[in-house]
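Here is one chain, start to finish.
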Amino acid sequence: MPRFVTIWFRHLKTDWQSVRQPTLRSLPFVLAIPDHGRKIITAANPLAQQQGIEPGMVVADAKAIFPSLKIIDDDPSLPEKLLKSIAKYCIRYTDTVAIDLPDGLILDATGCAHLWGGEKNYIAEINSRLTNRGYDVRATMADTIGAAWAIAHYGGSSPIIEPGKQMEALLNLPPSALRLEPEVTDRLYKLGLRKISQFINMPRAALRRRFGQHTILRLDQALGNADEPITPIIPPEPFRERLPCLEPIVTLTGIEIALQRMLNAQSLTLNAKGMGLRKAVFTCYRIDNKVEQVEIGTSRATANPKHLFKLFEEKIQTIEPALGIELFILDATRTEKIINRQESIWSTTGGLEDPAIAELVDRLSNRFGSSPIKRYQPDERHMPENSFKPVVNLLESMVDGSRLTVDGFQWTTDRLRPISLLSRPEPIDVTAPIPDYPPMNFRYRNKLHKIKKADGPERIEPEWWISEGRHRDYYAVEDEEGGRYWIFRAGHYAADRSPNWFIHGYFA
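Its structure:
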């Protein structure tokens, strides 16, 4: 059965101001915004309310009542910012936390309370933590959001409504406890319907005709007859592991034990779904409200907890537990389907399919970063310097266990290519006997190379959709010292000019 918690911050904005400026706790003050040449009060702290000052009043009228009243400019975007910040803090109590503007939070607490020793301790912990942070709150729990919200705002005998008892809890509350529109609430009051018990059993057709479909919806949501979706501030990951701690963890050994336990549980879940992890985030919530976080990535999908722990092992040493960590969360932020491959009996190596290669790349990448590790796949371009592209995944060209070409294009294997290709061709001075003949020698970096053998030309032209650039005639040449080079002539000879020559790679 679902269980929800609603948290009502009775003086959200003024409490926040008092936390920022402790001297305000002993002063009556209000927040105000300009409106058509005057200032309107948007929030008043409890001391100001005791003087008869309420939101909606004009500042000039409030000052007439209490001349020493302190006025602070309000920020209309402040409630949402505050609630988002507090919602992230409340992730320690449940995965699903949503904001309820202008002054509340909604927690889906299904299956969470037992970790704190029951619902009573769970609610007491939330109230205590938020009160210690300086907020005046009311946290309540019920089977439905509507019932919990009603008890938080309009009171009840207990902050916890027992499962299935929401109707009894709502009967003596006013209609506004159902979160109805003000005009509907006013109409109910004018008709003498001042308690929910007075109209809850009326025929639905009559209620719909007099007060609209929204009234029926709110009533059904509060009673549990209609769903009420919420939008979590941080959408839960599909493969998430949570580990609350009975006592704060302050040692590296404790962190390692927690991580190993969570990795084992997560790997079982991933294996059951045939999925593997590509990226994971390990988050630690400290009791001083700080968050420590480390992240790892893999070159291929894996659900091997021992390998994943090795990737985390060096990084978790950077986690500073301070006074202690009270909650661990492990998120698989990126997952992929694991492709099962048939093993070969006689093969001595698995090549890129060998898990050991992938695990080695993962360890190097997580230690030194991904930039020193390069892997390339062919790209469908003519010019040699553009005919490849970097890839991260070791198995990017693997589809359903079979090696395929990338976008239908393969590495060039029918023609000679250098072992080392320059990222950009470099100019050289060449002596050739007659046009279109192989060169006799060339000068590169102030050194003269006399050519003993030459093979070519091989013509390579730019793609038809590229208007710039000339064709190239490539030669594989060998000098008297045994050095082998890949050089080319850009364009044709002409009567008024000679083409430029370049060196593009080394064969040995």
